[in-house]
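Hey all, sorry for the wall of text incoming. These are the three entities for the joint prediction.
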Amino acid sequence: MSTRLARGGRLIDRSKPITISFNGRRMPAFLGDTLASAVLANDQMMVGRSFKYHRPRGIMASGAEEPNALVGLGAGPRFEPNQRMTTTEAFDGAETASQNHWPSLEFDIGAINNKFSRFLPGGFYYKTFMWPRSFWKNVYEPFIRQSAGLGKVPTDRDADRYEQAYAYADVVVVGAGIAGLTAALGAARSGKRVIVLEMTPACGGRAVVDGFAIDGQPAEGWVAAAVDTLRGMDNVTLMTRTMATGLYDHGYLMAAQRIADHTPGDGRPKQRLWRIRTAEVITATGAIERPLSFAGNDIPGVMLAAAVRDYAVNYGISIGDRTVIVTNNDDAYRTALALLDAGLTVPAVIDARPTVTGALPQAVRDRGVRVLEGRGIAKVHGGKRVTGVEVCVQAGEGAMIEELGCDCVAMSGGWSPVVHLWSHCGGKLLWDEARAMFRPDANRPPLGADGRGMVRAVGAANGMLTPDEVLTDAHAAFGDGTAPQTNAPDEARMEPVWIMPQGAGPKLRAKMWLDPQNDVKVSDVQLAAREGYESVEHTKRYTTLGMATDQGKISNINGLAVLSDALHQQIPATGTTTFRPPYTPLTLGTIAAEARGEIFQPLRRTPIHEWHEAHGVEWEPVGLWRRPFCYKRAGETTHAAVNREVRNTRTNLGLLDASTLGKILVKGPDAGKFLDMLYTGVMSTLPVGKCRYGLMCNEQGFLSDDGVVVRLSEDSWLCHTTSGGADRIHGWMEDWLQCEWWDWKVYTANLTEQFAQIAVVGPNARKVLEKLGGMDVSKATLPFMTFAEGQLGGFNARVFRISFSGELSYEIAVPASEGRAFWEKLIEAGQEFGVMPYGTECLHILRAEKGFIMIGDETDGTVIPQDLNMAWAISKKKPDYLGKRGQERSFLASPDRWKLVGLETLDGSVLPEGAYAVAPGVNANGQRNVQGRVTSTYFSPTLNRGIAMGLVKHGPDRMGEVLDFPGDGGKVHQARIVDQVFYDKEGAKNDA
Amino acid sequence: MLILECPCCGVKAEETELAPGGEAHLKRYGPGSSDEDFDNYMFARANPKGVHFERWRHAYGCGKWFLAARCTATLEVFGTYPAQTTEPPAELQAYIKSRRPEWEGYK
Amino acid sequence: MPNAVSALNGKAFSGFAQITEAGLQGMITLRGDLASPVIAEAVRAATGTPVPGPRQVVSAGGKSALWMSPDELLLLVPYADAAGIAAQLTPALSGEHALAVNVSDARAMFRIQGAKAAQVLQKLAPVDFDTLGADEVRRSRLAQVAAAMWKSGPDEFTVIGFRSVAGYIMGLLENAALPGSEIA
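and here's what came out:
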């Protein structure tokens, strides 16, 4: 059984006991434990079940490479699925639950898949779930979803908060092991701005576990001194608990910092995502130990050798009383020594190398432990826990030589440098035959903005595995003088072992796990190769090798070695799959960060926003603005409110908050010439004091925006745009001025938010303004399409006599800071005239009753002004304007284009939005031919019937014709083509 | 994520502060131009793997448009320069040539 | 004028830094040839300062001139004077191709105060505040909206954004300044 030893555990604080729970079982632990060490201290070896066969799964590793130990952590609003136990710090009260089992971890029905495993080989998804088609929806998918048990989605809103922050550096060192610390010291001493990122709470990496001396002092003391030095330097920021998740173009590095993961609810943000820009990245990310592929290597109790050592040294944990070590390298002997030091038994070290020399094996031999040379494990005994191993000749086929009883197997197949960050942004790898590993090719690094390498790998991440190699390599990155020296012994060469034993038959190979989370075995990869999957990327997807949440950190190299062997090619010819960020999963909270709730996205408010809110507003989003759709009174429906607003505006007085309309000042000697290019009409001839409606098109000729242009003075114009168009049109103007006509003397300023603008509309509009007093707004002094500036009721105001409703109407601009006060003044003064505020729906109905177009309704990016019968707004005399050449294209000049007309249903009903008018016959695809579509459709309270506008082929020439508009449920709406102006065709009301 | 130095204000802006504007140095064809010229102006865009000239606007900064020369394959930035020019500056072209001897040159 | 209210009417928040909407602030956009002596004279008349260099803010007697782009300045003057100063600028610049316009009401201004004020902005803007000059204006974004910011005192930053998103900016600043979220 696995237990806590009486002594040892450099990371735990035995004076601070805590309690966690696993599947409801309370377990004592210590501060400093990970969830993994905490459960191992309590003999909880099995922590989950595998994805496909639901085989028992135990903890295999001690770090981010752990494939099996994923749990749901916490409850309710703090529940998080898929927390990796080996990297999650334990805290008092932590509730954890295993995943991927039903009904319980100990007894799991899905494990029956294990019995049928010969029916679930590599590619089984593609083979099994293909037919019959109807089974996919009703049988296969529900089955897969039920079985695909990697965690449950949280159901509550996350109680925690997350944030992001930006940081800048000359050098970011990733990893604070002895390589990272050495490089960081060198960079810092050369005066560079340095950030050091360490994913675990403590620095030191493997060296502090392996226990050699650096420059004469124990590694632990050397590390502590280095950390102290770095922390004391102003130009260095050292962040622990911070995982560099990905490297992107131009030195953009993302790092997730765990702040309150282990102290939930303490008021701090749970995590912070750092967005770092750096000139250079040093990856000192170490290496990951590889498992060995022998039959039963997935049984709980089979672990990576270094992990067994970590648990003993860092957490004072014995995984088992009797640990068999199986290896192809010297490093695993350190585990034997650590276990012996802890008073545990090592029955034997099984070494696949034919002859084993070297200092570390000798030290083990000296302690009386048998070293079995040229041997391997044929098979592991045990179900939910290892009970023993069969020893065989590595060169043979697996015949048992002897059986060793044990409750832990510590395996080491060599080490793979962590090359993820190096590779994320294009760094290339080379195959190091001697070390049997892919490591960074320093000649082909990821490139930065200047085209030069922006990443250097040092230490184990660069393939340097012995302590002295590591330090020499890391020191060379920045240092001068001599590198730190260690007393670590030399290590003999490892020998690659991809299958154990080498001649294992099909039966053994079908129990050799490559990827324990996704249940991919040696036999699956070999099958894929036989079936023609030669590309490693294809094999990955066919077998799901390396596609689990650990992304194949321990399985990929073994997998592609097996694939290479099956394809009879060298490993470099097979290559690796692509390394993509993030290195370990990022929680979505860090990506959203502050963008939730009220500040999910910017909300643009007019100065009158709060008044609307206090008066029954129903909002309509217009871009990022909120505009009143209508104002509902107690008990009123939306429809009734809109109708009331329309009727009141037509008969009394309506107020519209039009502050969102774009207002762009265009000034300069060439401003008139510029506006003549921008608009289809002529603006240069507009007299000072006058207003003119204008259309803007893009270069293709399609309508882009419209609005009233005002000539403010000899050299300045004010261009009104649509609410959604202000920033876009201002940008459009600047684009042409900066990039095409840069010699034209024109300046623009976007004044949209400087003014609150209020439309005062209806038969009583003039009366209320006269009551406010201060300006002459009479028909004679301020005729239609003119403007005046002055004082209105004590407010500095610019009054435009314009109308988008057909009513007598003024639009009044006052400084935004006074907008609310002016609005309230109008409401108060308007009481005797029947004033009511109205919203955008009323605005739309008023304009539709008058046949005025709306950008975005009548236009959709494929409509030219000519389609809307607006040739009157296009100058025929101007040699050029933006869009003119585009409109000359043959298909836009065609007489067959759909043109704007009014549509009136025969029964007075409202046409469905976007409905199409059908024509006889079918098109080449067998669909009904069409001859028009509805662009705007409303119930007109003024006319008490449905009105619509639409684009119809040859429409203006077909007045009186009735068209069919099929709607939902087989209903066909019939509508007559009529004039688009439904109300007050003579314009008498506006002329009042 | 790119960083481009705005030649108008000197800020080394990251991509989130910029708005892309497509290919640089297009010549506008207006009324009277042939269908082919207009079609090329409107729709034909270079999409090289390698040296490319682009328009960018320092949208969250000084608001100015500028032009950038970069490698679409490696994202190496050869330089940025003001938008008020019809072709890349000679020194920039020479620098690109030094970095990419195989580059055919600006046409 | 007596009716004038700034976007958030002086709203304040106390976190690990102090956040305040700064109330009404006169602002004038001035566009023109910044090398022109006429512009220089007009700026001196308006703010008492010289024309700032690129990305620079210069202040005198409570007024400031901020460099916004190669052909644009933002002049900070008392709110009550802004309309008048803007009106005087136009004749002062006659004969010069220039634009001067009052934009006081189109903006909102915020102050962030405290020893860790920079951390509030560090969470929201892709800006290296360590290397930001003492008199440097940085135009960038705060999360999703445009803003201009500068170090206006030893432990103080000033931020200018658009009026319509003042509530959003305040929300961002408050959230970033929440107690417990200090960066180290």
